[in-house]
Amino acid sequence: MPESPNPLLSVREVHRRYRRPRTSLFGARPEVHALRGVTFDVAAGQRFGIVGESGSGKSTLIRLLCGLDSPTAGTITFNGRDVGGQPERRLGFLRDEVQVVFQDPMGSLDPRMRVRDIVAEPLARKRGVDVPARVRELLDAVGLPADAADRYPHQFSGGQRQRISIARALAPRPSVLVADEPVSALDVSVRAQILNLLTDLAEAYELTLVFVSHDLAVVRHVCDTIAVMHDGAIVELGPAARVADAPEHPYTQRLVAAVPTIRAALAGRTAADLAHGNPVQENT
Ligand SMILES: Nc1ncnc2c1ncn2[C@@H]1O[C@H](COP(=O)(O)OP(=O)(O)OP(=O)(O)O)[C@@H](O)[C@H]1O
Ligand SMILES: [Mg+2]
After folding, report:
1. Which of 26, 72, 151, 219 has the most CB within a 10 Å radius?
2. Residue 2 counted as domain residue
3. Does any domain span residue 178?
4. What distance separates the 2 farthest-apart alpha carbons in the chain?
5. Distance, CA 56 to ligand 1 centroid (Å)?
6. Does a structural domain hold residue 1?
């Protein structure tokens, strides 16, 4: 497995087991071995994609990377500092550096808060930040009009809500943006716009991207490196083009054979964007 000399994120032999509730009084507690010895590095500036079918352990891995959960065994470091198994208060350094965008923007946005307050939330305890100016800058960066700040999440479409989540994630100037299925809940017609927004922002802000999807074509479009997860383990890891176009592992070969739904939308993107003057293109 390729290892970079100074990885930003380093994952070593990570396991995560979950105990399920007992199904009968004297029965054994069934155990789910969600991650089985996962090892990889992510270098600064890399766009690292994780692909795999439902239940393969992608979200479990993401939660560990963000310090939202701890490994049962193994280590995770960010810039050389231990992330896994730290008490909440020791993880302050991670909170600004690693930000997450989740699948369902509605579920992750407080419906009672105005967009300005949602986006400004990660800036709450920061000194010397011109918050209104920063909110304007962030809304502009994600292709939303300035007056979006006064409105509430329900007044936006799914794609626009995901733009709001992305603006909030970028607020503390993270070095790593983690996205867990960020377009899976969106209409096919807007998926490509959000994916292109993510890649444009990654470039503009020199972000390291960790991007999770069950759709290999999506990961191929966004990432330079792909890790294929199957049953809690990485079965293949390499340059995106190589993994997607000449997969070596039988499981990856099956993923490639399963016709991706997004490809048509991605192919149709350029013409549609030109026709409608996609704001993402104008802003970045
Ligand atoms: N809190 C939990 N308690 C018990 N089992 C869990 C828990 N979270 C995840 N699992 C189990 O761990 C395995 C991996 O789940 P995970 O959510 O990481 O998969 P995933 O690849 O993100 O799937 P999807 O594509 O559906 O989002 C599954 O078998 C799941 O049921
Ligand atoms: Mg998941």
Report:
1. 219
2. no
3. yes
4. 65
5. 7
6. no
Indicate the top mutation candidate among 15, 18, 214, 228 to test ligand 1's pocket, ranked by most ligand atoms within 8 A of CB.
Answer: 18
pTM of the predicted model as reported, rounded to 2 decimal places = 0.87
Which among 177, 187, 92 has a CA at the least distance from the CA of 141? Answer: 177
Protein residue closest via CA to atom 5 of ligand 1? 18
Q: What are phi and psi of 90, to 5 degrees?
A: -85, -5
Structure tokens at 78: 């960010």
Determine, yes or no, domain membership for 4.
no
Report the atom number in ligand 1 closest to the C-alpha of 103.
27
Secondary structure letter of residue 178 according to DSSP: E
Q: What percent of the chain has pLDDT over 70?
A: 87
Classify strands 176-180 and 208-213 as parallel, antiparallel or unpaired. parallel
Residue 23 CA, ligand 2 centroid: distance in Å: 24
What pLDDT is recorded for position 4? 59
**Residue 137 belongs to what domain range?**
9-283
Please choose from 19, 32, 219, 255 the residue to mutate so as to test ligand 1's pocket, defined by most ligand atoms within 8 A of CB.
32
Nearest CA-CA partner of 182 in 162, 201, 164 = 162
- Cβ(182) – ligand 1 distance below 6 Å: no
Confidence of residue 267 (pLDDT cuts 50, 70, 90): low
- CA 32 to each of CA 56, 70, 180: distance values in angstroms, whole numbers, following the listed order: 11, 15, 21
32 in contact with ligand 1, CB cutoff 6 A: yes
In the numeric block, the tokens 């709001």 are attached to 164
Please tell me the number of the ligand nearest to residue 55's CA.
1
CATH code for position 188:
3.40.50.300
- Which residues are 208's β-sheet partners? 176
Is the C-beta atom of 18 inside 6 A of ligand 1? yes
**How far is the C-alpha of 267 from the C-alpha of 39, rounded, in Å?**
34
Q: Is the CB of 56 under 6 A from ligand 1?
A: yes
